[in-house]
Amino acid sequence: MPSTPRYRPEPKARDGHAPAAIAILYCNLGTPDEATPAAVRRYLKEFLTDPRVVEIPRAAWLPLLHGVILPLRSPRSAAKYASIWTPEGSPLKLWTDKQAKLLQGWLGERGHRVMVRYAMRYGQPSIASQLDALKAAGASRILVLPAYPQYSGTTTASVSDAVGAWCEGTRALPELRFVNRFHDDAPYIRALAGRIEAHWREHGRGGHLLMSFHGVPQRTQQLGDPYAAECQETARLLAARLGLPDKQFSVTFQSRFGKAKWLEPYTEPTLRALARAGTERVDVLCPGFPGDCLETLEEIAIEGRRAFLTAGGKTFHYIPCLNDDPAWIAALGELAQRHLAGWPTRAAQEAAANAA
User: Fold this and answer.
1) pLDDT tens digits, residue range 79-115?
2) Per the domain annotation, does 172 fall within a domain?
3) Does 202 belong to an annotated binding site?
4) What class of enzyme is it (predicted)?
5) pLDDT digits (tens, 9 = 90+) for 239-291
């Protein structure tokens, strides 16, 4: 029998006189295809078998995952997804798609002929399928831009792993660049501050601002992961931009999974403690999520609200993610422009060719 080819077939060769295309692959974490137990189980299986996400030895982890966690967690998670699902589908997928399109438009308005596609690390469209599509469209230079402001091995590095796996089966590799972090990027901080200030103008200013970031196991910090420090730096810069003294804001971590110790303080217990201490109103923002998703719309806006109010708080305000805020799209565009420097866009190449 013929052996399976090691490398995927290459797309049809392009005209050698055509300028090389530049592309951006905008990568987010992922989402189930549907808010059903079966779809959620497929998604969680892919997510929780990534060794970047769970560093427990495979021999101990996989039987627990398949025998206990997936059967029990999938129906519960599906119900949570159903509570925030839209007629168009997953909020995370909708916002990621929209941000990619708006980014391409922003760059195009400034003379950059750059293709922008979005991909999901887990679920669809996959990173591999979108890299194939970009190559087929003529891209020979690709900037990989994860939608993670703060670097973590569990997220940013996993995107790089997926790109590397695609490279292993590709004969003619494009030039690749990666954005690792933008936690302290001034336009990103400015966009976050503008989001909060706009909320305050409409709803009044609360007595306490809580900045909730996605959690990771504390062990990863002890092993050298910079994520926790970068979350704290984002919060510090944002508070400084808003002119907030230390007593008027808190930094917490959400989405704890399992029994291991994760980054502290945890979000929900902090909300309860604030309410019991007499804080009547709390405003909550999730700076690490560029687009609203399960972790913001259900875990914070629903569960976090319930925790604060049942503990005696009076008013809970969830401040939506950056989503399609023009200041955020501009921040994303400026970030992309800096990382694309030295790669002349097709418009620039064509202008140079015409001049010659």
Assistant:
1) 999 999 999 999 999 999 999 999 999 999 999 999 9
2) yes
3) no
4) lyase
5) 999 999 999 999 999 999 888 899 999 999 999 999 999 999 999 999 999 99
Does 183 belong to an annotated binding site? no
Same domain, 257 and 129: no
Its domain, for residue 199, covers 186-318
6 domain residue, yes or no: no
pLDDT of residue 258: 81
Do the domain assignments include residue 60? no
The confidence band for 355, taking pLDDT boundaries of 50, 70 and 90, is low
3-state secondary structure the chain: CCCCCCCCCCCCCCCCCCCCEEEEEEEEEECCCCCCHHHHHHHHHHHHCCCCCCCCCHHHHHHHHHHHHHHHHHHHHHHHHHHHCECCECHHHHHHHHHHHHHHHHHHHCCCCEEEEEEEEECCCEHHHHHHHHHHCCEEEEEEEECCCCCCCCCHHHHHHHHHHHHHCCCCCCEEEECCCCCCCHHHHHHHHHHHHHHHHHHCCCCCEEEEEECCEHHHHHCCCCHHHHHHHHHHHHHHHHCCCHHHEEEEEECCCCCCCECCCEHHHHHHHHHHCCCCEEEEECCCCCCCCHHHHCHHHHHHHHHHHHCCCCEEEECCCCCCCHHHHHHHHHHHHHHHCCCCCHHHHHHHHHHC
Statement to judge: residues 190 and 294 lie in one domain: yes
Same domain, 200 and 335: no
If one counts the domains in the chain, the total is: 2
pTM of this structure: 0.94
pLDDT tier at 14 (50, 70, 90 boundaries)?
low
